[in-house]
Amino acid sequence: ATFNKRKKGLVKKIHELSVLCGIEACAVIYSPFNSNPEVWPSNPEVKNVVAKFEMLTKLEQEKKMVSHESFIRQNISKTTENNKKKMKDNAERTMKEAMFQLLSGKGEKLKLTDINREDLCKYIDQYLKELYHHKNKSINQSYIQYGESSEATSIMAPTSMK
Question: Residue 112, Cβ neighbours under 10 Å: how many?
């Protein structure tokens, strides 16, 4: 029962893929219950798709192929990168939380090692640099806007009165 449900779902997905993407697709499904493989859509259509694939050069065939091993490696790589990003985000969130606990006078609850203190100091330094950068950027933008508006009014003002 499970095999038939999964097979039906797989065939439906392949059909959707071929319709939505405008591609030719086929499936050869080996069943543990039947010695002959089942094909979708039909035997002549499957033979046509396979023949077109076999007419491609080896390089073109390999370019369009993904082996199970390379697929798994790609997934592992993506998952590893995602994991590293999440760990970095968590570490940053922890540092930010510790920084604000210290600023609010609740720092005695923190149990920091020398390494944690060093990391926290680096984080605070970086945080302050970013704050100063944004402050200076904001001041410069407001100065430019003020300067532009006063310049515009001086251009529009009459230069001589008679």
Answer: 13
pLDDT band at residue 81 using 50, 70 and 90 as cut-offs: very high
Could you tell me which of 20, 14, 65 has the C-alpha nearest to residue 41?
14
Residue boundaries of the structural domains of the chain:
2-69, 80-155
Query: Does residue 149 surpass a pLDDT of 60?
Result: no
DSSP letter string over 148-160? HHHHHHHHHS-S-
| Sole residue written with tokens 């950068």 | 133
pLDDT band at 10 (very low <50, low <70, confident <90, very high): very high
- Secondary structure E strands in the chain: 27-31, 34-40
Quote the CA–CA distance of 139 and 141 in Å, as a whole number. Answer: 5
Does the 2-69 domain belong in CATH 3.30.2350.10? no
Find, among 36, 35, 31, 43, the residue nearest to 7 by Cα. 31
Q: End-to-end alpha-carbon separation of the chain, Å?
A: 99
Cβ contact 26:40 at 8 Å: yes
DSSP state of 27: E
